[in-house]
Amino acid sequence: MTLTTPPPAATAAPTTAAAKIFNHPRNAWYVAAWDHEVTGKQPLARTVAGVPLALWRNAEGRAVALADACWHRLAPLSQGKILGNELQCPYHGLRYNSTGRCTAMPAQETINPSAIVPSYPVVERYRYVWVWVGDPDLADPATVPDMHQMNDPSWAGDGETIHADCNYQLVLDNLMDLTHEEFVHSSTIGQEALSESEFDVTHEGNTVTVARWMRDIDAPPFWLKNMRDKFPGFEGKVDRWQIIRFEAPATICIDVGVAKAGTGAPEGDRSQGVNGYVMNTITPETDRTCHYFWAFMRNYCLDSQTITTQLRQGVHGVFAEDEDMLRAQQRAIDANPEHEFYSLNIDTGGMWVRQILERMLAAEGRPSAAPAARGGA
Amino acid sequence: MTLTTPPPAATAAPTTAAAKIFNHPRNAWYVAAWDHEVTGKQPLARTVAGVPLALWRNAEGRAVALADACWHRLAPLSQGKILGNELQCPYHGLRYNSTGRCTAMPAQETINPSAIVPSYPVVERYRYVWVWVGDPDLADPATVPDMHQMNDPSWAGDGETIHADCNYQLVLDNLMDLTHEEFVHSSTIGQEALSESEFDVTHEGNTVTVARWMRDIDAPPFWLKNMRDKFPGFEGKVDRWQIIRFEAPATICIDVGVAKAGTGAPEGDRSQGVNGYVMNTITPETDRTCHYFWAFMRNYCLDSQTITTQLRQGVHGVFAEDEDMLRAQQRAIDANPEHEFYSLNIDTGGMWVRQILERMLAAEGRPSAAPAARGGA
Amino acid sequence: MTLTTPPPAATAAPTTAAAKIFNHPRNAWYVAAWDHEVTGKQPLARTVAGVPLALWRNAEGRAVALADACWHRLAPLSQGKILGNELQCPYHGLRYNSTGRCTAMPAQETINPSAIVPSYPVVERYRYVWVWVGDPDLADPATVPDMHQMNDPSWAGDGETIHADCNYQLVLDNLMDLTHEEFVHSSTIGQEALSESEFDVTHEGNTVTVARWMRDIDAPPFWLKNMRDKFPGFEGKVDRWQIIRFEAPATICIDVGVAKAGTGAPEGDRSQGVNGYVMNTITPETDRTCHYFWAFMRNYCLDSQTITTQLRQGVHGVFAEDEDMLRAQQRAIDANPEHEFYSLNIDTGGMWVRQILERMLAAEGRPSAAPAARGGA
């Protein structure tokens, strides 16, 4: 469905919703870790949607997510030892199996039947370990967001994790409107064409798409370099695209690229261009911090580890510019709890994202706004 | 008017006013920055009386103070770019002129008429940029406190800025009673004569003056060095003076010096002495931090940059001793919210300062005490 | 009296008492410092049971504990100067004698009779300076806990102070159940026999004793080394003991050692073994921090400074492992204020300790639980 009217919040009327601190849905799959981070050697501590977890692999190689606090005295299980199919508490040696049930206690034969720590549903997909911290009866692996480019053989690439000092919603805002590239990333991917060109916003179910085409323009430095990797010595104008696809609650995959100008890319023939996917999925940690997993996948020069590394380093530099901005924005929001926010045309995609998140939170019977900052105002 | 009775608070009765955390008047000029800190190259972030500001110079060279948060998403304008007469937001490129009105928005032709950030009155005087964050209708440049020695050709010298971890009122206390030099600064300017000599307190309008003369004493190390700069090989006794002048809300200029003993300095002939002015002006940042701008100006050896540097370094060392004490005092006040304070004779000047500040705050309809510390007690 | 029934809290029923943040009794002697830390050269700042103190020695060599805040403006006396029998404030020079009475004020002859800072009862015993911050009328030196091994000529050894980031009660828990050695200290003193062997819990008045004997076992590395210090070339099995004695509110002395197996140690003949005392006394600083004073005393090779140093270093390494665990446990308790705690058999000694502390707090008319963490949940 194509957007014909702006979403309710994108009007001239002020809306505090625009920058309030968003709650996160609990009934959702979130990435807890890259698959290689979870091993059978020692557990990994990570907080997902407010829940501290001890992540480990059991003797069958299956990833397990237990609450990171021993039933007995709350010692962190993530500092314990993996013993085959069991995780041993580092303080008094209580052992837990993959379901979280205690199987051994020190100096006693009988085990209290209440001795259980929560174990959370886990799915491994697209090189990530996804965890569901909400109602386990609703945890359907079919609802893991689509990130198939991560391990599809037609695509190659790599990424990193950013620990961002802001509410996850600010990262979604950042990615749903790429106009900011012109100002934040002017030396790499920014260019004036971004704020001058039109864009198209559509939404359907729990997805929102923002598409922008810029025709017959100069390639910015990042893209010129990539064109020359595929077409040595390339010079000339390009057609550039950015097709942003959000899938609730927090995954945004962006189809990006440039092709030689006028060779038919907008109509579907991308053979004279280079194409990448910026894969992003954001995991709320606390109300004011998140884990931001990203990768850059490409469909050319698949075997070149050099290009994989160059692209990862390049995007690393670009995203570092965003980190500073997001941290500053979070601080300003906490310092101005009464600010009335207005939205611009460029915010249309982000406004639809908020609509979907508010619907999900309402279905859980929870408000969309997290509590105001302690120490704000 | 000479003080004939002690101020109400300087009696034997306890007064919590003596060390409560003071509010700061809003209707007042505060120094935001040294003039050279505010440029047309990149904006400066500084918080004045609780208000975060982006300070910059426009194309005419005029200093401008805008609120440091973009109307759109609160991104810090102090991280933006100065483009002639406009400041551009670092996130989405909205531009503001010197009055704070938005003049450009990305990807749209029309500009929301509400798109304004606050712009604050600015005066440049005495090598400082002064800002008024209160009611703009009351911002009269004639009420900027007198610090004329800062750029009067009969005086030479330089200074620095201290970021002090205490309420601004504690710095005022520190400067209104120089008895503390004997204990805090014993290796440089302290001497027993300070607590043994009498002093005279007067007040008029929004000023308070504390004058102390010490006759026929040894010069402490700092002053002996200065006498020898002007009178090579000087030895012997001196007459020493400290005439402290407070001008509300937070400027204290101290006429200090020594002259050869018995040559008539107390009567007005300072020709056989050296004279300096310790120029201090304190800008509240938060309830518990402040910007402390100081300089040391002298009226001899005007052309010697060496002496300017030596004096600045010397005072730097002295004031570092105060910083530690002020931080410790602030911590102790927060930890003892119920403490009943009594005042000594030496506090008379400081008590009159409080009276004037309380009067200013009452005129603004605000209490004199800021909220107690979170985490105190 | 031997325990025949478990203490009330050591049942299958959950008890939030098990890990709540404990208040500390005020009417008790706590170690403020090692005797050598308190000198007549410069005062020592230390907070005991929530009270910031300035500790110093007067001209007679007697240790004095004054509140660390000047009567006048709360400047820290611990940064002042010791002048014979008086302590001088570092800010304005007010002087206090050993009873806390002000004896001199700057620039005035008369001294306000209210000018007093609290002075707390002090006892020097067992190489420590003990302070009583509660009701001074109850401060009886006869109630200082027994730590006579510290300066009894039959024992030799040394120790250190740990600043632990947890409520003092968590350290008591840690020491009352040494099963944790098997998991936390597996490379030095831990061994499986610990959780496999039985133990005996008794209590009387304000003491609790937990005794454990492990017969005919291998000596763990720490003890094997010590046996060989006394019996060069020793090999073979040992009988090992741990006799933990708690004396309220926070002293735990542990009789530890091993002897050649079957030579009669359990029956009282320890001549074929090595014996040490782990001397521990914990001083609450705040609700969530404490000073943990420990020493390791031995009754063999008394003259060897090498062995003293080796033992101090060895225990230092062991206790560093506990520090990490205690900090993690405190953080988890604050993050899980609603957690229901259950106790295991191994917690029996710790449960009796809680009973005694609750009795002491009730006698002071105070609740046993300190306020929940700000920022918890």
From TrEMBL, chains A, B, C:
Task: Give one GO term, molecular function aspect.
Answer: dioxygenase activity
Cited InterPro entries: Cholesterol_7-desaturase, Rieske_2Fe-2S, Rieske_2Fe-2S_sf, VanA_C_cat
* Keyword 4Fe-4S in annotation: no
Under PROSITE patterns, the record lists: RIESKE (PS51296)
Q: Which UniProt keywords apply?
A: 2Fe-2S, Dioxygenase, Iron, Iron-sulfur, Metal-binding, Oxidoreductase
Which Gene3D superfamilies would you find in this protein's record? Answer: Naphthalene 1,2-dioxygenase Alpha Subunit, Chain A, domain 1 (3.90.380.10), Rieske [2Fe-2S] iron-sulphur domain (2.102.10.10)
Coiled coil (UniProt feature): none
Protein origin, superkingdom: Bacteria
Segments forming domain Rieske: 29-131
What is the name of the protein in this document? Answer: Aromatic ring-hydroxylating dioxygenase subunit alpha
Protein source organism: Saccharopolyspora halophila
